[in-house]
Amino acid sequence: MSKGVTMEKAKEELYQEARQNFKLFIDKRKKDQPFAYWFGPTNVHRKWIKGSGKKLWEIDPDDFKGKMPAFLPDVHEVRQDLADYFGEIAAFDAGLGILIEELKKLGEYENTIIVVSGDHGAPGFPHGKCNLYDFGTRVCLAIAGPGVKGGRVVHDFVGLPDLAPTFLEAGQVDVPKGMSARSLWKVLKSKKEDWVDPSRDAVFTGRERHVYTSRPGYLPYPQRAIRTKNFQFVINFRPDRWPLGDPYLLDTPKEPGFALLESQTFVTLADEDAGPTKAWIVTNRKDPKVKPFFDHAYGKRPREELYDMKKDPDQMKNVASDPAYAETVKKLRARLMNYLRETNDPRLVEDGKFFETPPMAGPVPGR
Question: Which of 123, 226, 292, 329 could form an SS bridge with 129, CB 3.0 to 4.6 Å?
């Protein structure tokens, strides 16, 4: 039986893997040839090792006690799951630091645009991945490099598609007229902090399907949303469907053992990735103290949702039907729908036929 290695040695092995992958890539380029390198480790994808956040990165889950967002139960199991997720983020940060070291050795650091982002929120948590709430769509975006005024925190609304025209402009390539995304260079070159570009006052997000096991017929859960400084407005185009997948097998007998239960929750409410948080909520859903968390995360939702971000930053109280917000709903609904029409969103064509038709349901091209 082989002996284990120390934490420091195990981490160093991972760092060397990141370093060597980048070196293999850079060694193949011709002298002074421009390059683009995509660093996409799967650290923050499920699953990760339970307890690793504290063991590897000294992130104590109980430090979060009393600080959890309203949509997550403040219990040790959930805090530990979140701490482990943060540990995976720390691992990503460490890998990024290795790449920056190598860029400096090459003398290319000052000549390289570095962009750090994610593509969705935390997987396997209520409000996270596969939701249009902030915890599901709000991700980091850090940009550095030539022409970028750094050392600032900017709150302008940005969508990931905006990176495309930003890169094109950096490479002195014309941005296609049909591209609805907007370059970020006006913001990047500015010295201002907080809110820089007044025209960036909202961001639009959407969702259709995640995994094929979520609903019979591979049906999606179509959503579109607009997020402004003060409000989040969501349209659920098929409110008769379960937002995170059909609740398969919830009341069937389960074998004892937390690990087994965690794997079993993969097949139920399948749009939310399996994990300790989901397993804990599903297991304890009949407890009167836990039921509100379960119903809020996995229950059916109305066609429209509106959240007052000043009063309700965790997006827990839907005020779309409150008469006091009627004018706000009207304005945001009109703006969202106008955007969908302007961008030719297929969800508005033939009642979403493009998305409602299961993949590969028709004849396969070439046959």
Answer: 123
Residue 79: count other Cβ atoms within 10 Å of its Cβ. 22
The answer to whether position 173 is within a domain reads no
Asked whether residue 196 is domain-assigned, the answer is: no
- 122, 129 in Cβ contact below 8 A? yes
Phi, psi of 117 (to 5 degrees): -155, 180
**What total number of domains does the chain contain?**
2
Q: Which residues of the chain form beta strands (DSSP E)?
A: 114-117, 141-144, 202-207, 223-228, 231-236, 304-308
Tokens standing for 142? 């850090």
**Would you say 316 and 308 are in contact if contact means Cβ atoms under 8 Å apart?**
no
- Tallying the residues shown for the chain, one arrives at 367
Q: What is the mean pLDDT of each run of 10 residues along the chain (367 residues)?
A: 66 86 92 90 87 93 97 97 95 93 94 93 95 96 94 95 95 90 95 94 95 88 98 98 89 52 70 92 94 97 98 98 98 98 95 86 39
Residue where a domain terminates, one of 126, 160, 194: 160
**Calpha distance 179→332 (Å, rounded):** 23
Rg (CA), the chain: 23
pTM: 0.89
Contacts of 355 by beta carbon, 8 Å cutoff, 6+ apart:
208, 209, 220, 222, 346, 347
Among 160, 179, 208, residue at a domain's last position: 160
* Beta strand residue intervals within 200-256, DSSP E: 202-207, 223-228, 231-236
- Closest Cα to residue 133, out of 285, 292, 294, 243? 243
Amino acid in the structure at residue 63: D
Contacts of 333 (CB under 8 A, 6+ apart): 233, 235, 304
